[in-house]
Amino acid sequence: MIEARAGTAWRVHFLLVIGVVVFAFPIYMALIGSTHDAGTIGRGSLPLYPGEFTLENYAQAWEQGSGQRVKAVPVAGMMFNSFVMAVVITAGKIAVSILSAYAVVFFSFPLRMFFFWMIFLTLMLPVEVRIIPTFKVVSDLGMVNTFAGLTVPLIVSATATLLFRQFFLTIPDELVEAAKIDGAGPLRFFRHMVLPLSRTNIAALSVILFIYGWNQYLWPLLITTSRSMDTIVIGIVKMIGTGDAQTDWNLIMATTMLAMLPPVAVVVFMQHWFVKGLIETEK
Questions:
Q1: Summary count for the chain: helices (H), strands (E)
Q2: Would you tell me how many other CB atoms lie within 10 Å of the CB of residue 239?
Q3: Could you give the C-alpha distances from 161 to 143, 221, 256, in angstroms and in order?
Q4: What is the pLDDT of residues 214-223, one digit of tens each?
Q5: In angstroms, rounded to a whole number, what is the distance separating the alpha carbons of residues 46 and 38?
Q6: Domains of the chain
Q7: Per-residue b or e along 154-173, where b marks 16 or more CB atoms closer than 10 Å to that residue's CB
Q8: pLDDT tens readout for residues 29-78
Q9: Cα separation values, 26 from 16, 21, 43, 120, 185, Å
Q10: Distance of CA 80 to the CA centre of its chain
Q11: Of 274, 235, 243, which is closest to residue 64 (Cα–Cα)?
Q12: How much is the mean pLDDT over the chain?
């Protein structure tokens, strides 16, 4: 029995290692490409070991963003735009969702469930579906090429509201009654009881929403016309140009590796809270 389990575990781990290698190899090649010059990559003779242009490529991408063939903006500015967008979207979605879920669960008012289902139905209306009227409203409000235009239309999240509601429904009624007996009002109960209990859920959602905001492509592409407001995802697409002959692949790969650092760092540092928020059931 023990040998059979060991054999099964070995096969499972072998398949997992193969899967990791398959998915990690393109990333490894991008990392290697970011250490060579554009000529080496253009000739198709990219080796499997690092080159001698690492510091030069990364410094040029971070400070200038432009190479011999294409003109771009510094990666530092694009990463700042993406970071602000991701943080504001994350904080806004969590704030709006947790308050709306708290109102739906703990308050009794007319048409409460009607409004909840109206929020739920917006899951069928993502940004891509309502992109034209959303752009018209944002444009009329003068928020083109602004951080407000980048973030405000993406703040509300029906998914996060649903997840918070389901979590709040698991809070024992005895806890609510005890808070009322102690004289805690709605705001005090929310601040001292609901928020501490929700910290793992907030952490888990923060990871998901940060990556969601960081990887946004379609909306920033429409709402920004100035290169100074480009996010890192938009910047990489614009750096590619129209053909291989007009592309500094070494700078693009360096930019890509830099663009991966913030979401990877968030996942690594928040991994414990992320897993705990997904599996924790005790209140």
A1: 16, 0
A2: 26
A3: 26, 27, 33
A4: 999 999 999 9
A5: 10
A6: 2-74+234-256 (no CATH), 77-233+261-279 (1.10.3720.10)
A7: bbebbbbbbbbbebbeebee
A8: 989 988 988 888 877 778 888 888 888 889 888 888 776 666 678 888 99
A9: 17, 9, 18, 38, 55
A10: 14
A11: 235
A12: 85
pLDDT at 138 over 70: yes
Please name the amino acid found at residue 49.
Answer: Y
Angle, helices 249-269 vs 271-279, to 10°: value is 50
* The predicted structure's pLDDT at residue 283: 43
Rounded-to-integer distance, Cα 135 and Cα 132, Å:
5
pLDDT band of residue 210 (cuts 50, 70, 90) is very high
- Alpha-carbon gap, residue 90 to 213, rounded angstroms: 7
- The amino acid present at 199, given as its one-letter code, is R
Show Cβ contacts of residue 196 under 8 Å, excluding neighbours closer than 6 positions: none
Contact assessment for residue 270 and residue 207, using Cβ atoms and an 8 Å cutoff: yes
